[in-house]
Amino acid sequence: MAKPLMAKATAVWLVDNTTLRFKQIADFVEMHELEIQGIADGDVAAGVKGFDPVTNNQLTQEEIDKAEADPMYRLKLKFNPASVGEEKRRGPRYTPLSKRQDRPASILWLVKFHPELSDGQVSKLVGTTKPTIQAIRERTHWNISNIQPIDPVALGLCKQSELDAAVQKAAAKKAADGSVMTDDERRKLVSTEQSLGMDSEPKIPTAIEGLETFTLSGSNSDDEDKPVRVVDAESLFNLPDHDDDDDDEDDAHR
Fold first, then answer.
1. Coil, strand, or helix at residue 153?
2. Which of 79, 102, 160, 201 has the most CB atoms at less than 10 Å from its CB?
3. CA atoms within 13 A on the CB side of 30
4. CB atoms within 10 A of CB 166
5. Contact between 74 and 27 (Cβ < 8 Å)
6. Which residue from 64, 51, 63, 57 is spatially nearest to 80, judged by alpha carbons?
7. Region (Disordered): which ranges (predicted)?
8. Residue 148 confidence (pLDDT)
9. How far from chain centre, in Å, is Cα 17?
């Protein structure tokens, strides 16, 4: 059932001006029965002015009278042609003023890391216009030199599930077109859940890259046949012994 406009204020008016049961009012405004009881006790919606649903074309007096006569009757919202299609509003989503300055950074992030997304998809994700997206794609934006790419999910401009859904939709469209994708493009088209579930590939540090086959042993067979001379500490540091007779002769000559 559709929810009436200004539901809490409508509930306040129905509590003050009708003899409807709390359950009937709660079902009509889609609130909990205890909240309606709290409104009647003055604990909930204090200071809220009642919103007349009859004057505002949401209920008829005959509908209220019928519900007051039958406690099991459920109120039906009056059909309003002006509200038809309101939930299917098109165009970019509304972005709060406090987050609008973050949109260029999020657009640059999406353009850089998910170039497969169309301008329409980017527009729906972060709530922007296609000329702005095109200017950032072509790097003709007036502030492009100061913009740093930031994940729109981290900025709170969209949900991770919405971003994953857009990426998967772009991947399916690209696969249907039959275009060849590079490995980097395939990795970008993987959703967050799939990427987190993948096993990490072992990588060689860049500092030792290219030394995988390096060994300390020589490859010449002639070197392997030569005997290896072992030098111990005593033979290296001990000096040769002098004969005592030679020392005596030297003293006699002096």
1. helix
2. 102
3. 9
4. 21
5. yes
6. 57
7. 215-254
8. 92
9. 47
Contacts with 32 (C-beta within 8 Å, 6 or more apart), sequence order? 26
Considering only CA atoms, give the Rg of the chain.
41
**CA atoms lying within 13 Å on the CB side of residue 172:** 7
Q: By the 8 A CB rule, do 130 and 123 touch? A: yes
Q: What is the pLDDT of residue 69?
A: 92
Q: How far apart are CA 165 and CA 67, in angstroms?
A: 44
Show the DSSP H helices in 93-149 as ranges: 103-113, 119-126, 130-137
Chain Cα centroid distance, residue 241: 81
- The residue count for the chain: 254
How distant is the alpha carbon of residue 70 from its chain centre?
A: 50
Q: How many whole angstroms separate alpha carbon 185 and alpha carbon 112?
A: 11
DSSP letter at 99? Answer: G
> What gap in Å lies between CA 34 and CA 236, rounded to an integer?
96
Does this model's pTM top 0.85? My answer is: no
pLDDT confidence of residue 86: 47
**Amino acid of residue 140:** T
Rounded Cα–Cα distance for residues 11 and 3 (Å) = 12
Type of residue found at 57: N
Question: Could you tell me which of 198, 112, 194, 195 has the C-alpha nearest to residue 152?
Answer: 112
Q: How far is it, in rounded angstroms, from Cα 154 to Cα 84?
A: 35
Angle, CA of 144, 149 and 154, to the nearest 5°: 140
